[in-house]
Amino acid sequence: MHIWQRLKTLVQTELRHLTTINPSNRRWQMPVAAALATGLPLMVGAYFGHMDYGLVSSLGGLVFLYAPNTPLSHRMVWLMACGFGMAACYALGVMGHFFPAMLMWVITFIAILVTMVCRFYRVGPPGSLFFVMAAAIGAYSPGDVQAIPLKVGLLTMGALLACLIAFFYSLHALRLDAPQPVSPLPPPTFDFVVFDAVVIGAFVGISLALAQVLQLERPYWVPVSCLAVIQGATLRAVWNRQLQRVLGTGIGLLLSWALLMLPLNEWGISLMMIALAFVIESMVVRHYGIAVIFITPLTLFLAEAATLGQGSPAALIEARFLDTLLGCVVGLAGAVCLHDPRFRTVVGTQLRRLTPTRLMR
User: 3 in a domain, yes or no?
Assistant: First the structure.
C-alpha cells in the first residue's frame, strides 16, 4: 500500500509538471519578427527556384532568437556577434563533412567551445543549441569543396537579414517597453564555464559516436537532442525537458506526417514554416512540450525540405523519432553525471590538473 501511494504521488507530480502552463508577458510582435527572420529566406529561395539556398539562409535567421532585452546599441552588437558565431560554427561543420573520420571530434570541439563562450557571457536560452545545430546540419549536408564559400555566405546573409529585422523590431518594441539595463558579467568560475562545457561537449560527441556506430541515416539530430536536454539547470529540469521533448516529438511527428501528406509546393512550405515559427515562439515560454510539437515539423522541414518527396515519409518520421530518443537518453545520462557531486569531484580534479593555472585565475 505504501508503494502504491508513492507511485500515485510520483504520477501526480509528473502530470503537474507536464500540464503546467507558465505565464508570459511576451508581446505578439516578437513571434512575428522571429517567424519573418526564418521564413523570408525561404520565400526568397522559392522565388528564385533555389529552396536549398533558402534553407541554409533560414538557419542564419535563428540568430534573431538571441536578441536580449537590452538597449538598442548593446542588442545589435550582441546579435552581430551571435551571427558571426553561427557562421563560424556552420563553416566548421561544412568543412568537417569532408573528413568523416574526424567529424565526431569536430562536433565535440564546437560543442565545448560554444558552450564555454555562452556560459562565460551568460547567453540565455537557447544557449549553444542553435550553434551546434547549424554545425551538425552543415556537417551532414551533401556538396563539394567549391560550395563551401557559397553555403557559408548564404547562412551569413540569413543572419544579416535577422539582424536587420531585429533592428526594426527593436525600434518598435523599445517604444512599448523600457529595455533592461546591461548587467555586469559575474566572475566566471572553473566549474560553470570549463568543467560543465567539457562534460556537455563530451556527451554530445558520445551521442554522435553512438549514432555513427548504429549507422543512423540522419545522425545530426542525435547530438542536437542530447544538447537540448543536457542544458537544464537542475536534474529535475533536465528530466522535465527530456520527458517533454520525447512526448512532444512523438506528437510532433504525427503532425509532421500529416503535413508531409499535403500537396505543398515551395511557397506552401515557406508559408507553413513561417506559421510554425510564430506558434513556437508564442508557446515556448509557456510550455516547452507544446512548443516541441511544432518545433519537430519545423526542424524536420528545415533540414529535409530540399529533398522532400525523394523518400518514404514513414522512414523519415521513424528515423527522426529514433534520433531524438537516443539523443535524449544520452543527454539524461550526461545530466546525471553533470549534477552528481562525486563525478564532479573526481573528474573535475583531473580536469584542473590538465588546465594551465593561468586559465583558472
Answer: no
What is the pLDDT, as a whole number, of residue 7?
A: 61
The Cα–Cα gap between 70 and 121 comes to 14
pLDDT tens for 249-259 read 778 888 888 88
Cβ count within 10 A of residue 184:
6
- At 301, the amino acid letter reads F
Report the alpha-carbon distance of residue 214 to residue 9 in Å, rounded. 38
Task: Please give the average per-residue pLDDT across 17-43, as a whole number.
Answer: 81
| Dihedral (CA of 319, 325, 327, 330) sign | negative
Cell output for 94: 561544412
pLDDT in tens, 54-80: 888 998 999 998 988 899 989 999 999
Closest CA to 57 of 146, 144, 165, 145: 165
Cis peptide before 126 (omega within 30 of 0): yes
| Locus of grid cell 512540450 | 289
| Of 65, 118, 59, residue with least CA distance to 91 | 59
The range of the structural domain enclosing residue 164 comes to 28-360
Provide the number of structural domains found in the chain.
1
pLDDT of residue 8: 60
Element (H, E) at 12: helix 2-19
Whether 4 is covered by a domain: the verdict is no
Q: How far apart are CA 177 and CA 280, in angstroms?
A: 22
The answer to whether the CB of 247 falls within 8 A of the CB of 4 is no
**Banded pLDDT at 302 (limits 50, 70, 90):** confident
Angle between helix 129-139 and helix 72-96 axes, rounded to 10 deg: 30
Contact 66, 78 (CB under 8 A): yes
- Whether residue 7 lies inside any domain: the answer is no
| 108: pLDDT strictly greater than 90 | yes
Grid cell of 326 as nine digits: 537516443
pLDDT per residue over 143-173, tens digit each?
888 889 999 999 999 999 999 999 999 998 8
Among left, alpha and beta (phi > 0; psi -120 to 50; other), residue 124 is beta
Sign of the dihedral defined by the CA atoms of residues 57, 58, 59, 60, in that order: positive
Please check the confidence at residue 268 and state whether its pLDDT lies above 90: no
Of the candidates 247, 238, 243, 250, the one whose C-alpha atom is nearest the C-alpha of residue 297 is 250
